[in-house]
Design brief:
With 355 residues, this protein is an all-alpha fold. 66% of the residues lie in helices and 1% in strands. It has helices spanning 7-14, 18-26, 44-58, 63-71, 77-107, 112-126, 137-144, 148-166, 176-193, 197-208, 215-218, 226-237, 247-259, 263-281, 289-306, 310-321, 338-351; strands at 33-34, 40-41. Strands 1-2 form a two-stranded antiparallel ribbon. Strand 1 and strand 2 form a beta hairpin. Helix 3 (44-58) packs across helix 4, helix 8 (148-166) runs antiparallel to helix 9 and helix 15 (289-306) packs across helix 17. The longest helix has 31 residues, at 77-107.
Length: 355
């Protein structure tokens, strides 16, 4: 192909529809050059990339995952094949379990328990992982690229850590054992998410919505007191901030958290929402309608977080000013330029009525 091809010509050459090519362009999978008039023009390099897309799609890879693989300049085909082999091997194991369930049901067709197990196994074959809903397509694809053995090891480590935390619920989260568990929690969290902010955000969103998990997801933590573990670990993870507080303000914070049990995670979710909305408002006037609406939300949430106590508020501001030296992973806000957003909110609050 020595010349550029318009979309319909390229579609005929590639054996697919122009509609598919437009979709690939929208999702960034195949980006042809554009003429000054905005028309797509495809080249020989586009055809080579499309051949790779078709080959990987045939193997069962989702488009988001294909894009990630092809955008990696050092990606070699063997890497993609090894990854997909692991996916197919897992599917083969699932099919094997389904066949075994069907055979058992054939031998005992009147057994209600056997039939229920059959329905559960076959249902697992036909449903997506229920946790996928909490992730962007790209973040989910990055997470699923990990080897099955690595994911299984992480699951076992989390299970063991949950059991240890649960056995320590009567201890002080800020004590020696509580802080040791918090350190292990942070380290395993970093390994599980590989430091990926979007993957971390997906896991956090899933945890916030745990009351609405489908039964299949609930079974993964069956037998554990999820709420008690969450409350303990939230307090333990917050122990590193102790250095920013006086003895008096720290005692006030602890009392505030005891009185508002369960509010901490809700507050974290609302902070995330405010920062995300403020990111979308960057470039607007902080004193304008949108900026002032954000300022009202910020004031209300700040008051709830600090309990309106000046000493607690002062310590939190001190901690924020020292965020470059935090000894715990900072909250992740994918797509948010935190420094610009905080500056915008500061101007919005200053532009509002004094209180």
């Amino acid at each position: 192909m020595s010349k550029g091809y318009k979309i319909h010509e390229f579609a005929e050459l590639a054996g697919m529809t122009a509609r598919t090519l437009r979709h690939y362009d929208r999702v960034g999978l195949l980006k042809p050059r554009r003429t000054e008039a905005g028309y797509r023009v495809y080249s020989e390099a586009d055809l080579e990339r499309l051949e790779q897309v078709v080959a990987l799609k045939y193997l069962g890879l989702p488009l988001a995952q294909i894009k990630l693989l092809l955008d990696r300049k050092s990606m070699a085909l063997p890497e993609a094949l090894r990854m997909q082999r692991r996916v197919l091997e897992e599917k083969r194991r699932e099919i094997g379990r389904a066949i075994a369930a069907i055979e058992a049901a054939e031998r005992a067709p009147e057994d209600a328990l056997m039939l229920r197990q059959l329905i559960e196994v076959l249902g697992m074959q036909n449903e997506e992982d229920p946790m996928k809903r909490y992730f962007s397509n790209e973040a989910w694809a990055r997470q699923e690229c990990r080897a099955e053995a690595e994911k299984e090891q992480a699951r076992q480590e989390w299970s063991a850590l949950w059991k240890e935390v649960e056995s320590s619920l009567e201890e002080d989260p800020l004590g020696e054992r509580g802080q040791a568990l918090a350190a292990r929690w942070r380290e395993l969290w970093q390994r599980t998410t590989q430091g990926d902010a979007e993957v971390q955000a997906g896991h956090e969103k899933a945890w916030m919505d745990r009351a609405n998990w489908p039964e299949a997801a609930r079974q993964r933590t069956a037998g554990h007191d999820r709420e008690a573990i969450a409350a303990f670990i939230v307090k333990a993870l917050g122990g590193w901030t102790r250095r920013y507080y006086s003895a008096e303000s720290w005692a006030k914070l602890q009392a505030l958290q005891r009185e508002g049990a369960g509010l901490q995670q809700k507050n974290q979710e609302e902070w995330r929402a405010i920062f995300t909305d403020a990111q979308a408002a960057l470039g607007e006037d902080p004193a304008g309608e949108r900026g002032q609406a954000l300022a009202v939300r910020w004031r209300e949430l700040w008051h709830r977080t600090t309990g309106g106590d000046p000493a607690v508020a002062e310590a939190m501001l001190k901690a924020w000013a020292d965020r470059q030296n935090w000894s715990s992973p900072a909250p992740q806000y994918p797509g948010v330029d935190l420094e610009r957003v905080v500056a915008f909110l500061k101007l919005a609050v200053e532009a509002g009525p004094r209180r």
